[in-house]
From TrEMBL:
Substrate binds at H136. The active site is at Y77. Signal peptide: none annotated. The record marks K105 as: Lowers pKa of active site Tyr. SUPFAM superfamilies: NAD(P)-linked oxidoreductase. Keywords: Oxidoreductase. This is NADP-dependent oxidoreductase domain-containing protein. The keyword Transmembrane helix does not apply. GO terms for molecular function: oxidoreductase activity, acting on the CH-OH group of donors, NAD or NADP as acceptor. The keyword Oxidoreductase applies. Pfam families: Aldo_ket_red. Residues 45-302 form the NADP-dependent oxidoreductase domain.
Length: 327
């Protein structure tokens, strides 16, 4: 038990948008972004998915058979072309491009060639437009011994993203792993504010202060590692007694409870899996509705500890790995 968030964060799934559809996709719910576009609450993450046949089969199955409509990738993941091939198979099976929401990311230091880098991603994905483009890892490279800034200021990167949006090549633009301090720096001179910040957040690492602050500026959160990551920390959220008790109450799985908790506070989720069984299980979290007592119990699990590769966060601006505060 730790620094629990208050129960006020129950921005319920009831506030989300349902877009009429048929088959499994009818489960989908969407959040309205500040720029007017709609983004699915549930998506599929593809980080560390690099086997071509597996990626193509997994993404195609997720979309066609399970009803997923949001696929998240990135240049860094080295699988954009694989995702593109999967999308082509989906089109052949009757899925329309406008039904889908595709996210990719450009690394922050690539600001001198954002356009060229973007075109490369679009070619690999086989797309004419992108639904969401994120600055991958919104962080200024600083030498913490000399305090020299080595990388580009984030506002320069952001200006290049704004140009792509103005030209209609990208519908929405956003950020990832962005602290409140860096967020304010971007927003201060922005023509188009970020509408999404993709961050690590789960019941053990709620980041409620970040989510609440940035939402005041119209920026919603997407959660990666929404069910934790015991491989890095040895702390398994899915074996937590509180989560398991609530799962038993709702006749759901622990993963579904963790996902439902995030979605009911207005946070979109992109759990990654290569298992067809887990694809189905995760998507069915959209059917789970937690009550206020459930949510309050889960809120109390927060201990402000990262679960996703803490060694990568050993930076003063993120909080040292042994005290990782995201402010």
């Amino acid at each position: 038990m730790g620094c629990g968030a208050s129960a006020h964060n129950t921005r319920n799934v009831k506030d989300s948008i349902v877009i009429p559809s048929e088959g499994p996709a009818a489960k989908n719910r969407y959040l309205q972004l500040q720029d007017g576009h709609k983004m699915p609450l549930m998506g599929l993450g593809t980080f560390l998915s690099v086997d071509e046949n597996e990626v193509i089969e997994n993404v195609t199955h997720a979309i066609v058979e399970e009803g997923y409509r949001h696929i998240d990738t990135a240049q860094l993941y080295k699988n954009e072309e694989m995702v593109g091939k999967a999308l082509e198979q989906c089109y052949e099976q009757g899925i329309k491009r406008e039904e889908l929401f595709i996210t990719t990311k450009i690394w922050r230091t690539n600001y001198k060639n954002v356009r060229g880098s973007f075109k490369e991603s679009m070619k690999k994905l086989g797309l004419e437009y992108l639904d969401l483009l994120l600055v991958h890892f919104t962080l200024t490279d600083v030498d913490w011994e000399t305090y020299d800034i080595k990388g580009p200021p984030m506002y320069k990167v952001w200006k290049e993203f704004e140009k792509l949006k103005d030209e209609g090549l990208v519908k929405s633009i956003g950020i990832s792993n962005c602290t409140n301090m860096m967020f304010v720096d971007i927003v201060a001179g922005a023509k188009h504010r970020p509408v999404v910040n993709q961050i690590e957040t789960n019941p053990y690492f709620s980041q409620q202060k970040v989510i609440d602050f940035q939402e005041k500026f119209g920026c919603k959160a997407t959660a990666y590692a929404p069910i934790g990551n015991p491989g890095f920390t040895g702390s398994d959220l899915l074996k937590d007694e509180v989560i398991l008790d609530i799962a038993k109450k709702h006749k759901a799985t622990a993963a579904q409870i963790a996902l439902a908790w995030n979605m009911q506070r207005g946070v979109m989720v992109i759990p990654k899996t290569n298992s067809k069984e887990r694809l189905k299980e995760n998507f069915e979290a959209l059917d789970v509705t937690l009550d206020e007592k459930d949510i309050e119990k889960i809120n109390q699990l927060n201990n402000n500890k990262r679960m996703w590769d803490p060694d990568q966060w050993d930076e003063p601006q993120y909080g040292w790995k042994n005290n990782p505060v995201y402010l």
